[in-house]
Predict the 3D structure of the following.
Amino acid sequence: MSYVQEIIQQVIERNPGEPEFHQAVTEVLESLEVVLDRHPEYIKAGILERLVEPERQIIFRVPWVDDQGRVRVNRGFRVQFNSAIGPYKGGIRFHPSVYLGIIKFLAFEQVFKNSLTGMPIGGGKGGSDFDPKGKSEGEIMRFCQSFMTELFRHIGPDTDVPAGDIGVGAREIGYMFGQYKRLRNAFEGVLTGKGLTYGGSLVRKEATGYGLVYLTDQMVREKGKSIEGARVVISGSGNVAIYAAEKVMQMGGKVIAMSDSNGYVFDPDGIKLDTVKQLKEVERKRIREYADIHPRAEYHEGPAGIWEIPCDIALPCATQNELDGKAAKTLVANGCFAVAEGANMPCTPEAVDTFLSNNVLFAPGKAANAGGVATSALEMTQNSMRYSWTFEEVDAKLKQIMTNIYRNISAAAREYGHEGNLVVGANVAGFIKVAEAMMAQGVV
């Protein structure tokens, strides 16, 4: 058994019942064999052994009172995975599926994603198994305040700076920031994704979706393709999906399908984004109602069927492992030439192998969806400066960061003998920066 396989086996044995974490570690470490062959000093320093073990794992009780006066209890998490290149940075997710393994997988991925941005931020992630769906404003506020009443002890502008994720948008960030401020008696840039009236950054809402399309554009143009005129399928209908769709349309592409956890809509005339924004951002309704407004559109139960729609570019932006090997084969058979991950690890290993073996251009999430955290880091910078940049200034910085990410991962793949394999390129480029920082800081 190789050194890398020994580390993977140790991770599986020491972290039982956490398949998402096992998957993320395996995917990264298996692509690092070529780096370790060239840098045996990383093995001697135990970089991998340290890299796969979080620096800190925090689990806490979150009691809150619902509108009927009943005491409810959820579980909260914060995993501070690696601070070698900066304070921990990563979102907070509120969803019933959240458990320690999900948070560890997300935090581990965040280490490399943050490294790729070029910004001085380490990797972390947090969340709770609380479900905001169906809850009143008062219930959500009380939950967020209770969650922050414990979390505030472990975060700070130079320690750990959380952001939003699934189930945590501007509303939830606002409630948590207010509670942090009350407990700390300090107005600090401790959360990103804040409202513009109290330290938020322009472009933050759009950043992950815009960044995804900026990197996709770089990837396809290098191969003589274009987003202009392309048929694009986007799973999800949250922030990432909505603003990826917006940028695709601005670049002349045609988005023909979007989804939520219940099903998907296909509009042969092209998705009307104003309708999706109204349904999802304002009314908080389900995607099925799109078809009631636009009669030529079709609604189908079950989100997985969205990948059966013939398209040129697929952007999975919903959740982990949503696109499996079977769906990948269907996309290939239907002529899809590019896939870029807007969500975290939305493609299964079988799907990724299918794309790579069929010469489909593929950008992994740790690179393709790094625009959100990159703009969060820009928000941190503005908070430290007590200053705000314009929309155009932030957008230009975001576009440059995504361009640099593409160039760096493409170059890393080429240097280590895997030209065109951006999965290897992203893992290698992200890893080397973190490994060098860990080496410089000794055994900590």
Notes: The mean pLDDT is 97.
